[in-house]
Design a protein that fits this description.
Layout: E1 3-11, E2 20-25, H1 33-43, E3 48-52, E4 61-66, E5 71-72, H2 76-90, E6 95-101, E7 104-113, E8 116-122, E9 127-128, H3 134-143, E10 158-161, E11 166-171, H4 174-179, H5 184-194, E12 198-203, E13 213-219, E14 224-227, H6 231-243, E15 253-260, E16 268-276, E17 282-288, E18 290-299
Protein name: Phenazine biosynthesis protein PhzF family
Keywords: Isomerase
GO cellular component, one term: cytoplasm
Length: about 300
């Protein structure tokens, strides 16, 4: 029997039962994919992260992510949770770690503040897909329960990705954002057509000075009807805003805070930093708080 150390971490918040919950298995060496999927299904979070020892000198370890139904290549809130759990387990100081993921080796930074931590995740390569044709864009709007009048026409409907793609849909108002009621079956069917499982609706309509955007993210094709606070949506959103000239860099840097999860009672805040490199590529980082909901052991 192997005894697994398991955390449930609420990411992008310091308040328990807010933000986005993720499972973390900190000693996953030897687990099979079947066992990881069973554990993820049992914990029943949108994602569970599994930490493995390094198998070579190129990184400090490996990390894999599972929803209750399948493996996914990367996950923002589960990365924040995993690095937070490792920091607690090993009483780490401020440090930088490199982890091997399905989208390559990524650097993560742990910042120690007295006895607590924040985590910075450098995301994968930013990519922006071509605009959808009118018919497909209209199907997305309708499946989300929106009308043409709700859409912010400054914001093209297109896929943005830093390793786990999301469709970006700009909404004129928080009222429209909060009232939308998606048809999850239609969204899941659309995911197969456009090869993208996440739909991120956002608005600039904010009455809080340090919050630029409010958002909601839906991914029913992978069993997540609505995700509370999504790193792999807010991060790519930063690149999307720069690429579409909806925001500007200051000395090659654009930073903002995005809020998500309010409508489902799990609000959280993600800090996003976009850096324009010398070769005109965009490097994207997200930073967040975290807190432990519980820690337990599983024998398997």
């Amino acid at each position: 029997m192997k005894q697994l150390t398991v955390y449930q971490i609420d990411s992008f918040t310091k308040e328990k039962f807010k933000g986005n919950p993720a499972g973390v298995v900190v000693n996953a060496d030897g687990l099979s994919e079947t066992e990881m999927l069973a554990i993820a299904r049992e914990l029943n979070n949108s994602e569970t992260a599994f930490l493995f020892s390094s198998d070579d000198s190129s990184c400090d370890g490996k990390i894999r992510y599972f929803t209750p139904t399948r493996e996914v290549p990367t996950c923002g809130h589960a990365t924040i949770a995993a690095m937070y759990a490792r920091a607690l387990e090993e009483n780490l100081g401020s440090c930088a770690l490199k982890y091997k993921t399905q989208i390559g080796i990524l650097p993560f930074e742990i910042i120690r503040n007295n006895v607590d931590y924040q985590v910075i995740m450098t995301q994968g390569k930013f990519e922006l897909s071509p605009l959808f044709d009118h018919e497909t864009a209209q199907r997305i709007v309708t499946a989300l329960g929106l009308t043409d009048d709700d859409i912010d026409r400054r914001c093209p409907i297109q896929i943005a990705s830093t390793g786990h793609s999301k469709v970006m849909i700009g909404i004129k108002s928080r009222k429209a954002l909060n009232r939308l009621t998606p048809n999850f079956n239609d969204l899941a069917a659309l995911s197969k057509v456009i090869n993208c499982n996440g739909f991120f609706a956002f608005t600039f309509d904010s009455n809080t000075e340090n919050i630029l955007t409010h958002g909601r993210m839906f991914a029913p094709a992978i069993g997540i009807n609505e995700d509370p606070v999504t790193g792999n949506a807010n991060g790519p959103l930063g690149g999307y805003l720069i690429a579409n000239k909806l925001a500007k860099t200051d000395n090659s840097v654009f930073e903002f805070n995005g809020m998500q999860g309010e409508q489902i009672g799990r609000p959280g805040i993600i800090a996003v930093k976009v850096t324009a490199t010398d070769d005109d590529h965009l490097s994207i980082q997200i930073k967040g708080d975290a807190t432990v909901a519980f820690k337990t052991t599983i024998e398997i």
